[in-house]
TrEMBL record:
It comes from the Bacteria. The lineage of its organism: Bacteria, Bacillati, Actinomycetota, Actinomycetes, Kitasatosporales. PANTHER family: CONSERVED HYPOTHETICAL ALANINE AND LEUCINE RICH PROTEIN. It comes from Streptomyces xinghaiensis. InterPro entries: 6-PGluconate_DH-like_C_sf (IPR008927), DUF2520 (IPR018931), NAD(P)-bd_dom_sf (IPR036291), OxRdtase/DH_put_Rossmann_dom (IPR019665), TM1727-like_C_sf (IPR037108). Pfam families: DUF2520, Rossmann-like. Residues 149-275 form the DUF2520 domain. Residues 8-132 form the Putative oxidoreductase/dehydrogenase Rossmann-like domain. This is DUF2520 domain-containing protein.
Length: 303
């Protein structure tokens, strides 16, 4: 792992008073990581009981206040709210005069770059987009997982060194993402991580239905090896009946799924078609075997 060198002292942010708006799973963990680097969490906002518990666990003795009070007390503000809520939050903070000139305003949305912070930037804020490419649990383990975690970083050129320094101080590795590429970047991460959870959960359910007593123990080594092979070799790691062109096996799979778990059929067929396309493009799936397989998939496995 090639960790970037720490910036020189002149490029590193001073010790900052840190506030968190939105005590979901991400914000308290990032603030806790910044505290380990010497920054001072001073305020956090949260509404739900779960948010209050997370803030108390990860940021003990940090007062729970309103978003406006968080900004009033902080030099660095982490806006860690859901993507769809972010534009409205920024607009509201700017319109009510909560934003101060020179205040670092950081959001953690993967979807957005810094343009979403333009209302606050007009009020003098310094905008940064720092998105950790990590799934969060809302517990202390998240702080440990930040070590070596890549962050998608977008910032004005004059703030680039400060943005990268903050990521490094949290234990992460900065990866520069252009403003226009943020939606594609985020879609790529969601495709890999979010859909993986769905696929694994479905696989666990099906194994239980098949009588497997410890499906997690069965899947763990298999999925670990598949992920490692995919990261190392890409499409060359494709295996299984689709990549081999075993049309009869795929048809049998679909028939079983229709009987025992019909809600999984559409996903199985969609992923099988995508796998077949990649296997053909990489030369793993021979044309003479692909014809029957594609026919099965086109018929929804009813052949």
């Amino acid at each position: 792992m090639n960790t970037p060198p720490l910036p020189e002292a002149k490029d590193r942010p001073a010790r900052l008073a840190v506030g968190v708006v939105g005590a979901g799973r991400v914000g308290p963990a990032l603030a806790a990581a910044l505290r380990l680097a010497g920054h001072r969490p001073v305020a956090v906002s949260g509404v739900s009981d779960a948010s209050v518990r997370r803030a108390a666990a990860l940021l003990p003795e940090v007062p729970l206040v309103s978003p406006a009070q968080v900004l009033a007390r902080s030099e660095l503000v982490l806006l860690t709210v859901p993507d769809d809520a972010l534009p409205r939050l920024v607009q509201g903070l700017a319109e009510t005069g909560a934003v101060r000139p020179g205040q670092l305003l950081v959001h953690t949305s993967g979807r957005y770059g810094t343009a979403v912070l333009d209302p606050a930037r007009s009020a003098g804020a310094l905008p940064l987009a720092l998105h950790p490419a990590m799934t969060f649990t809302g517990t202390a383990v998240d702080v440990q997982r930040l070590a070596g975690c890549s962050f998608g970083v977008t910032a004005p050129e004059e703030l680039r060194l400060a943005a990268e320094a903050l990521v490094i101080e949290m234990g992460g590795e900065p990866e520069w993402i252009e403003e226009s590429a943020r939606p594609l970047y985020h879609a790529a991460l969601a495709l890999g991580a979010n859909h993986l959870v769905t696929l694994v959960a479905q696989s666990l359910e099906l194994l239980r239905a098949a009588g497997v007593g410890a499906p997690d123990r069965m899947l763990g080594p298999l999925l670990g090896a598949a992920l490692d092979n995919a990261l190392r070799s890409g499409d060359a790691a494709l295996t299984g009946p689709v990549a081999r062109g075993d049309a009869g096996t795929v048809a049998a799979h679909v028939a079983e799924l229709r009987e025992h778990a019909p809600q999984t059929v559409a996903g199985y067929l969609a992923m099988a078609r995508a796998t077949a396309d990649r296997a053909m493009a990489s030369g793993l799936l021979k044309p003479e075997l692909a014809e029957d397989l594609l026919g099965v998939l086109a018929d929804g496995g009813t052949r």
